[in-house]
């Protein structure tokens, strides 16, 4: 006689990881709203109060998402630098553009940046993530302050251009070129 197996329950850590993955997409698209939290809960099959228990607050969920962005970018930087040791900075920039292509990473970062304007805890976490990524870039490339500042500026530009729908397939300079007035335009 076959016995029905009870459904396997996810651990809190598994639910947290699922919630962060969904929240990154939802928050990137809709912001950090109560409705967005309900969508996260619905998509992972739990109640909204359970999502709050996992993270403590909407802010806690956002901080976990910011940490995940940092982790993903750092992973991409390492893989890109290892794959192109002669020119790691260019490879890391290309990997970053690729990571942004889906819209989630850049959208989440823009939402977090907007919230950071009025929330010092979120602002501090954003600064921490940027500092870690700059240190990672310096360690992987040997770049100094000026090169790192340009790298950060290029990354911020890529986030902005991606958010407004500019085609980045041919690189940042080509994307900016599409925004410049054409010669035949007065």
Automatic annotation (TrEMBL):
Pfam family, one: TetR_N
GO molecular function, one term: DNA binding
PROSITE patterns: HTH_TETR_2
Highest taxon above the source species: Bacteria
UniProtKB keywords: DNA-binding, Transcription, Transcription regulation
Matching InterPro entries: Homeodomain-like_sf (IPR009057), HTH_TetR (IPR001647)
The UniProt record lists the keyword Ligase: no
Start and end residues of each HTH tetR-type domain: 13-73
DNA-binding region in chain numbering: 36-55
Gene3D superfamilies, sorted: Tetracycline Repressor, domain 2
Protein name: DNA-binding transcriptional regulator, AcrR family
Species per Swiss-Prot/TrEMBL record: Jiangella alkaliphila
